[in-house]
């Protein structure tokens, strides 16, 4: 068979690719075995014939579509299943295949949907994780590895909607909002939008799943659990008590979990706080595990008596209910800061107005920066208008303005519109104000650090603040005494209610023990310090004796930690010591063991102090020394986990108390608790980092 010349092929009338496949096949067969005298013609024939060839269609859509010519220069794609037609090409314009892929991926073909519902199985038309497995470029299209189509999972979608509402505080009614319903319908037409009641049930189900995992953690806690109470008011006069738990687990890691949100119909009553504690203990089955309670506000005498009575019943062997912290440190610092600012309100307003003058105009801010560079002011601070709901921003504004006071003074001479510039005396007062606010700011910053700082950390900060404010309040400088008088009065209330717990916590720090208590009390109380030190010493010894009397271990996990082995099984034969008439021997062993165990605390206190080092992990130290101090290490973990703050880190600097919004007040109390607690658990399940290792090699 002779090979046709290029001219003959070019002169033929072009036909669609589907009709030329047989001709191309014949040409390819002839070219497989060409005669020798035709070799010179082969290359030009192939090159010239190439424009008439159409590449074989490789897209997955052509497994489900055919192309038919409906008019001159117009072709359409037809679905093989439902026969629905789609635009494909008109003249030289090709519509592409994206709309054909959507027809496949969204599963809107009625024939396929009926077959799928009948067989109850997934089909190639089910929605894939991505719209297609192709990457298009302007020049060429490459097919990637084949990705199987996954079936649409309505239950998974419902789970994710519930999780989204919980994590972002969206209203439950959003699932009935027309805009959201239209968005979901366009995203996946096969998803039947859930109702308010359905999504409420899904959110509660998510809460219950997470609660079960938290319950397992709490059941495995070898020691005791400390609670914090934070009362939120509402516009409906009911209160919501946020009850959180803090504890050290069997791996010696600190945890803080929101446990309950209890609606209190009468939040001002004397029983509101004690009722919430009792409800939490009952809900989580924590009877016998309560160690201390920290409250976000001072209690009146009746409420304090009710709380101490509850503590005496729930943990009678722990100092008879004395471990009650009546003030939240974050709330106390916020109140003290507010009082200080109010006492010098005119001065703070003057600085704020100067900062606003610069920051509210781009030209003035540029001029200010230029002056700073010309004056070569070494400060790295930048001006910012404060947010009066966050007191740290006010402190940072004052500090930045003071460091840039030279620039403000120069601006006064260069800008005639700048009025009310602070005087030299004003700047001196700002410096004094910042000096007394800095300890408050530094202490509050400790509350915002990652993880939960141990209780001993705050004794150092608290006693220094107490000492400095006491000295300043008696200052002969009228500005200093006026400024610090109210600050000292408010902090003194916190110190009196919390110093005992802070002191016994610092005794559990092997770098300080009782020595720092003796030193700091001598500075604060002078000649009367010995009596206050004795209160702490007696309290720590009494608590240790009570721990000796406790039935140990509280959990099987503690047995493994102390003895390095699992608990022994019960004696099936009943051949115990009592059956052999050795009950008196048991009493003798308890008495002698108590005598020996008492020396654990005394031995610890008599040993030399550890060198002070950076980033010392006090809990890690007790973990390392748990074999040497089996009882004392357990007591130390409980003491070091006492929280001094009732609010989360993000709210430490708030000047306005949190209030429950009206929407959540309209929901059932059980739903409110489920939404808020589940959010806390979901946010912290991956955020808890391991405790830093003990570092004892580099003394300060």
TrEMBL record:
Keyword Transcription regulation in annotation: yes
Domain BED-type: start-end pairs: 56-116
InterPro entries with a match to the protein in the record: hAT-like_transposase_RNase-H, HATC_C_dom, Znf_BED, ZnF_BED_domain_contain
A Gene Ontology term for the protein's cellular component: nucleus
Molecular-function GO terms, alphabetical: DNA binding; protein dimerization activity; zinc ion binding
Residue ranges of the region described as Disordered: 118-137
Any Pfam family the entry gives: hAT-like_RNase-H
Localization of this protein: Nucleus
Oligomeric form and interacting partners: Homodimer.
Protein name, as recorded: BED-type domain-containing protein
The organism's taxonomic lineage, starting at the top: Eukaryota, Viridiplantae, Streptophyta, Embryophyta, Tracheophyta
